[in-house]
User: Fold these one by one.
Assistant:
Number 1:
Amino acid sequence: MSSPTKRGRRPAPPPSSRLSDPSLPLHLALSYLLIKLYPLNSEREPIPIYRHTFISAILAIVMREYLEVSDTPVSFEALVDETDTLIKAEADWLKLHIKGLRTKGQPVEPIKEQRAVFESWLGGYKTAFSDVADGGIFLDLLEKDLGDRINVDDDEEILELPEPFERHSPIGIFVRKVLLTLRRLSFDETAALSRQCGEWCGVTLAGPSRWGALGGGNRKLAMEQPLDRRIKAFEGMREAEAAGDVTGGLAQLRKFYDYQFPSSGRAQHQHALLNLAHFHYSTGGLESARAALEEAIRVSRADGDKACLRHCMSLLHRLNTEASPLPSSQNTFRVQQTPISSSVLPKPTSPMDELWNLRAALDLGEPVHVAMRRIHLAMARYDQTSLKPEDKREPREGWTTEHDLDLAAWHAAQASLWGMMGSEHLCELHEDLALRSGGVSGDARLTVALARAERMTNKARYDDALRLLLDFDLLQGMNMTEYHRWTKVVWAVLDRRAVLNGDISSLELLDSLRPSPCTMRKLGPGGIVRDMAHPSPILDNGETEPSVNARLIQDEIRTSLSKVRKMQESKTPPHLSLPLVLSDIQLSSELGLWTLYRFGIVLMADILLSMEGGKLAQKAKNEVESIWDQVNLLTWTHYYLPT
């Protein structure tokens, strides 16, 4: 039996003429068939509905046209007739299958009932391109649906429900080519492709798009918009962001983005979208940040802006990590003396992402001594070629975005880790190195100042701590995120001084002035603390949403130790507080938080002494003597735990 005649392979079109390929509408229709063939549930897992014979028949049609086995490409009408016959037969079988399930008393999934009703798949494909704008929206959704059905990389672990298409299979290669084409389309190319698909389906497009009349305007007038007006709008956005005026900042951003970028000059578009995503991220609008970021990634890929794309992927990495679950109670937490798995905390691609992963790893319960390796990984990822003066590269034309390692932040992060492990000398050494680094950022300088102020507070040097916190150089240029971090330490210093002095009037004044702590929320591991204003919204049905507030594991230990201290002050029976402090000692030991570990030992000794009979006095003495050499007496006399 002779093999079928294969059409001559056409040369691949260059990137500048992606839309000149006449088979592109056909390939998009075949991709739509694959999406309908493999429905997904809300968790993006495939739902088995159809028989293998039906799936094989549809896949055979897709591969026949993709590999160009037939003499001529199939027309839209012929493809509709061929697929509708198969779909109708499968719908009839589904009706009989559902009837049999109900006869046996077995449940029937709603999606099976929907697919049992015959519907022309390609008929919906044709309807989507009846309008140019609707076709553009359809292409955007097509890209997202295809991306959900193909695995991103070669996973070492075998998934229970893998994606329908393996990326190295013939179907996977076909889907990846279609995805690459869709992701590189500009706005004008998307509109042109929508028209091209409509013409291939036989749709008559009369007049402009119904959406174009709403925002078309005078394109020439929009392009001639004065540059200083747009610069002023952007400066207004930065001022509103620093002042915490979210509404005003968004209004200024709308003025800045109210500009139609011509197809020949889109160099600023992706950077504007990236700034918008950063603004939403810093103010708590994670979904809005993700939407702007996805558009920035798409435009960056289409424009070939690798520098902006790297920053987009960095922010996307933070968003995905912050959306992951975090242990909410130490009672259900198990410490592993190994790094967090890459399936939980994805591997970064840049030095600053590695530093950000350090904070996320600590939130997820990675021991401090294990997390220290991330400091050296960040330095290893640093581009050493940037340190060689003889290897100077020409800057890219247009807008560029630097993505190097911030040495000040690197030293500040290392100082924070040494402080958690109780080494004050190494902590101060790296803080000094952070302040001496060239071009130290405001965030790194603030991190060092807050850490030093907290240590001064622990030693009862309240005036020195306030003098450091109220330094004008530290306050100048502070944004709202940094302001919230700064105010938290200021309130802690004032509260601690009033408590030790027994100043009841000052405590009452502080309680009336400072905001409620429940308004400050952390949405996920590695994320920043944001002022959410309304932390507990009330739903219409009277139920409240579950809390998504994420807490550091060390904060859980501090809170528990503070609870034990209050129980001791209120003369609570020792057998009730002893299990709590033992759990805190065990967890702080496994995490390498030796400062909290030593304080837990002191609390445990106090509890043992308060037990009846006094037979455990020698045990308490031995426990304290085991840590006495490492304890700074002045520090521990005034140790502060948040209440």
Note: The longest strand covers residues 520-522.
Number 2:
Amino acid sequence: MSGAGQGKPEGTRAVNIRKIIFWSHLVVGVATGLVVFVMAATGVLLTYEAQITRWAEHRSVTVAPG
């Protein structure tokens, strides 16, 4: 008996494993990239906190009581 017509060809298994590796690598890479991006963004905000606060409050007006 030959393997023809009895299930998937042998090359299909390698393609499935390759797809699994590709998608898992993509998902892990994107997730890692998001974590690094958030860390970088919060680091920049912490570094320039004084300048950002000064810029945001430069038009604040104080009203004298009474």
Note: The chain has two helices and no strands.
Number 3:
Amino acid sequence: MSYASLNWVKSPSGFESSPGGPGFPRMTLVPNFNGRTSLSWYRHIPRDQSHCSGLEELSTMRLPVRIAVGCGALLCVVHSAVGVAHADEPASSSSSTTSVAPSSVERSSPSAEPESEAPQPTDEHAPPASEEVETPSVVPTTPPPSEPSEGESSVPAPPSSSEESSEAPSSSTTDTETCSKGESGRPATEKWSPTEDPKDTVTPGKMRSDCEKIPGNGKFSKADADRAEVMEARVEKRQMTARVAAGCQVYWPAPYEVCGVIRDKYNSLGGPNSFLKFPISNEITNPGNTGKRSEFMVGPIYWSSAHGAHPVVNSFMTKWGSKGWESGFLGYPKTDEIANPDGQGRRQEFVGGAIYWHPTQNPQAASIGGAIRTKWNAVGAEGGPMGYPTSDEVAVTKYNGRYNNFFNGTVTWSQQTGARQLFGSIRDKWAQAGREDGPFGYPKTDEQVSPDNVGHYVYFEGNGAIYWHPVVGAWPVPTKMLALWQTVQYELGSLGYPVAEPHNASASGQGFLRQKFQNGVALVTDSGKGLVASKPQ
């Protein structure tokens, strides 16, 4: 293991390093600005011949650098806060070892004075004066465009000194880590992967977009892809300089940053390889500063401090948007999309309710919440007799009530009656009569099973009840008729179930209500007196 110290000094081509030991390669530093700049840099060279590549972060003056070493030789670009250094050529083996204290580094402008002097390197990082620095292997300066032969390593050319510049790199270096223009027809990889050694300035013919086809089905242009690669490099450099956990990430070829918890969720789903595909926006603050979101090709990921980050896509996104997004009654998502126990439908939970979807019962999705959902859950939710919701919650005028329709029923709600469910034929009969605005009004009981365990019935707040039998169907029984029917024990008595609608009639100047049952006819006078039950006629 060997160490060496170099001092960057001004040269016509930029900044060069004075060799710190025999065989140590001369280095060239291409600055990001004009003016005086010097930097002491330390190299740690592993001598593991079985692994000819490696990556190590070192730092001087609190400025991180990144190097790749292989078989004792410097292979690729050394990033620093003042510029980009690259191997130029090996120094003469007769060079003497020098040790120069690092000078201050300008961070603001070329004319700015240095703020403070960087600390001296400690003894544990500097070699003893008598120790001879081991000679690194030679880095070829003009390797062929194909893969380097064993023992050789390609050295990337430095990017230009500013974002706007597109000057060619110095002729003393050749970048063979990138493909030539002739390779631009190479198909994109089946799975997305980050850009290896992204360029921090656009370099014609050397960008990733010059090497492989741009994914995204035409969503992103070459300019987008090149901008994304530059962003990848700068995000990486920014995070190295900040010495904190990565906060944002760029996913080539999309020129957008995905950050924080949203990035973590996106990566956990598979990033661009997931159903969301590529990002199409930077992080956005939602109205009212209540949370954040990032948009992707298939849908957004929304984040709130109370419920975390969750994607909302397809029919769920469409339905949620129609209800006002996070500002509507549903609020922020609480879960990702969930597969229901039946193996067919899906749902997503929100703060104020849920959205349900089924491929045949409700392919458009429907929202449900509050007391209506509580009632539906009590009878088995989508696995119960009502099936999936087929409408959103609907507001009605009478009593400021609400209802949801389901595949096999309805749940209504009003402050006077609470939430009540109706199924099948009873629900259909009630709807034909005008629902809550008809003569029955709101149901005041849930649908009940008759004492004979055959029929069903529901009582209403307006006028009477509706009874159903699997043989005779569903028929209404008005309140006055119910009083008579009760005297003969309802459906368990001599009359049995109703089999027809009630109707008004008169005889001998007396008006009455007449209704047919399985085993007879019931008559009720207008005054409610003189109730008569008779055999079928």
Note: Residues 222-242 form the longest helix (21 residues).
